[in-house]
Amino acid sequence: MSPSSPERAGVLERLWRRLACCGPYAPLAMFLLLVLPLLTLSRAALMLWQADRVGATGIWLEMLLQGVRVDIIQIGLLSIPLLLLMPILAASPFWKIWRRLSAFWVILATALLVLLEAASPGFIAEYDARPNRLFVEYLKYPGEVLPMLWEGFRVHLVGGVLATAATVWAIARLLRPWLDQPRAWSNLKLWLTWPVVFLVCVLAVRSSVDHRPANPASFALTSDPMVNTLVLNSAYSVTYAIYGMRHEARSSEVYGKMSEEEILQHVRTTREMLQDPRPLLGDKEIPTLTEQRSTVRRERPLNLVIILEESLGATFVESLGGVPVTPEIEKLKAQGWWFEQLYATGTRSVRGIEAVTTGFLPTPAQAVVKLSLAQRNFSTLAQILGRAGYDSEFIYGGESHFDNMRGFFLANGFSKVTDENDYVNPVFKASWGVSDEDLFNKTHERLLAKHGDGKPSYTLVFTSSNHSPFEFPDGRIELYEQPKGTDNNAVKYTDYALGRFMEKAKASDYWKDTIFVVVADHDIRVRGETLVPIERFHIPGLILGADIKPRVVKTVASQIDLPPTLLSLLGVDSRHPMTGRDLTREAEGLPGRAMMQYNENYAWMEGNQVVVLRPEKAPTHGRYDPAKKHLDSVPPPADGQAIEQRALAHSLLPAWLYREQRYRLPASGAAQAAR
After folding, report:
1. How far apart are CA 25 and CA 258, in angstroms?
2. Where would you tag: which of 138, 171, 491, 647 has the fewest CB atoms within 10 A of its CB?
3. Which long-range contacts (CB under 8 A, 24 or more apart) does 242-251 make?
4. Whole-angstrom Cα distance, residue 600 to residue 590?
5. Closest Cα partner for 245 from 400, 359, 132, 130?
6. At what angle do helices 26-49 and 60-89 cross, to 10 degrees?
């Protein structure tokens, strides 16, 4: 039998009598006593859930103990606002206000902690990390995110809401006696103790007597990034993400510092290493301005269609060692340039958009598509082609304002945006917009119209069917697995839609005048046990159409190498600030290079040599085996310091160019004409 109400009331009264010695600090003491074990239990449960990966580290106890340290930091952060108000509101004239405000704050803070912990399993399952900046960014788009959560994470959503509601109810009942507590401390006692308590709280938040306060890097105990996030609590992870977003202009400096001259010198030496003959022009205002004369000479430049495939990593391509769910791509790859070692720059669509459409290097900050200083006069492929007489259009099946795509594109060279509002009677509409089938039907319609205009065009097409909750029309494909709504089935459907589009394109008049690029924005659920899971950055890439001859590109390449390469294939001469390689002029057999931003870690890969830059920690070296898809740690090689310097220079370069607004095209009169 459960205790009667009088018995429960008696327990609460005894509890609050014991806390009476804390005076006005009693609700904060209660907050500490409640939240510390709650967060520890949540962490322990997550560790047991991920027992295989945690067990591989062998540091169970250390993780729990360091986790308590993180929890104390978070409790301190949530306590400081109340402590700042205490000298006034806990004094005698305002005691009633203090009781109500402190109770409300404790209820709100505890509910927030519970909500974020409840959201953690689903977020970890999807993104291999505790809620982070991506969690914060998604809050800006409730119209898209809520349907996705309901369709794909219904159990997590309902469970989290119920757990939070139960917490609010329980804490409210627990704090009810506090609302009737008489004031037992004098104002003098309050004011004498307050500086000491506040100082203790600040020291708890700092959690270190070193020069720098504790941060997530302080709790990076293993080489497995996901396991490191388990040491944190989700509120701390989100709090630090928000802090980082406010200080992202100099975000790359967490890896080290280097003068502007040194940065540019390493950019030059990297070009020499890659035997890139294109000169930097020495423009002080646009330091990376490059003269590029196309290697393919044409009487009339070709049209360009870039198909950016949502989350279609190498894990879904059989010939790249993945699951056999892209038979159409397997057929197409022999008809053009096929990239065997192409790597994404990041783990989000907006990062892939940044690389493929602007050639901009990645940083720990948000992609420039969303950053304020890039919302005008920021160099893009559309701007470069615009000077050669091209019209540019972005075609998407969802709401184009998501991730600020519409705003960025229209401000930087695109003349038209087509999104879900422009589809009449679509075949299928899902949480993220119309199906890829509808998207490609619209693309075919628009390409036919453009071909009739006779003006060169650039079309960026962004798919969305391969996005959780993986919704697509019935009857199109033979399902790879059950149930229907899985990533493998969604990829097989988007591959089907791509195949049907290519069939129509080849039969159309525009095919002979158009180069098509099929490339992924990133792989799905990027995760791994190494500091940067390079195998999950591996993506397919294909260039075909017009007069493109079959070729297998074996060198290590990055998404940022696509725009300069395409300019040459199109037959467009230009001056631009892109640092990517023009692969049409690169000799066979060069090792190549790629860069990958994984949360706060930055990997620089030359051939199979890898250096990983980490915030406030020494770089680590590795050797990547593409056949085994594994990164092995190795001692620094003889040229290790030189590689580290090249990596650091290229990690610092984009933040500097963005901050100084130097990633732009020269004045129109200085631009080279196309052809």
Report:
1. 48
2. 138
3. 242/133, 242/136, 244/133, 244/364, 244/365, 245/133, 245/136, 245/365, 245/366, 248/363, 248/364, 248/365, 248/366, 248/371, 249/365, 249/655, 249/658, 249/659, 250/655, 250/659, 251/363, 251/364, 251/365, 251/655
4. 29
5. 132
6. 160
Distance CA 133, CA 135 (A): 5
What would the pLDDT profile of 291-344 be if each residue is shown by its tens digit? Answer: 999 999 999 999 999 999 999 999 999 999 999 999 999 999 999 999 999 999
Amino acid, res. 486:
T
Domain ranges of the chain: 25-242, 260-670
C-alpha–C-alpha distance, residues 110 and 190, integer Å: 25
Asked whether residue 17 carries a pLDDT value surpassing 70, the answer given is yes
pLDDT exceeds cutoff 90 at 226: no
pLDDT at 138: 78
State both tokens at 101: 């405000």
464: exposed, middle or buried (C-beta count within 10 Å: 0-12, 13-18, 19+)? buried
HSE value, Cβ hemisphere, 13 Å, CA-based, for 147: 12
- Looking at residue 4, its pLDDT comes to 52
**3-state DSSP call for residue 601?**
strand
- pTM value? 0.78
The CA R_g of the chain, rounded to the nearest whole Å, is: 28
Which helix H or strand E contains 39, and what residues bound it? Answer: helix 26-49
- Work out the average pLDDT over 111-128: 91
Residue 169 predicted with pLDDT over 50 = yes
Mean pLDDT across 349-357: 97
Nearest to 470 by CA among 485, 457, 488: 485
The structure tokens 């020291």 sit at 203
Q: Is beta strand 609-614 parallel, antiparallel or unpaired with respect to 617-625?
A: antiparallel
Taking CB atoms within 8 Å and a gap of at least 24, the contacts of 187-196 are 187/91, 187/92, 189/23, 190/23, 190/24, 190/86, 190/87, 190/90, 190/91, 191/87, 193/25, 194/83, 194/86, 194/87
Q: What are phi and psi of 417, to 5 degrees?
A: -125, 130
CA separation for the pair 323, 317 (Å, rounded): 6
Q: Strand 541-545 relative to strand 337-339: parallel, antiparallel, unpaired?
A: antiparallel
pLDDT of residue 490: 97
Q: Which fold has domain 260-670?
A: Alkaline Phosphatase, subunit A (3.40.720)
Q: Largest Cα–Cα distance in the chain?
A: 92
Whether the per-residue pLDDT at 652 is higher than 80: the answer is yes
Mean pLDDT value of segment 623-631: 94
Task: Say how far apart CA 165 and CA 114 lie, in whole Å.
Answer: 10
The residue type of 33 is L
Predicted confidence band of residue 672 (pLDDT cuts 50, 70, 90)? very low
Q: How many CA atoms lie within 13 A of 383 on its CB side?
A: 25
Nearest alpha-carbon partner for 359 in 339, 378, 340, 337: 378
Q: pLDDT > 70: what percent of the chain?
A: 95
User: Is residue 649 helix, strand or coil?
Assistant: helix
Q: Which two tokens stand for residue 607?
A: 């051939």
Provide the edge-to-edge strand list for the sheet that holds 601-606. Answer: 593-598, 601-606, 609-614, 617-625, 630-633
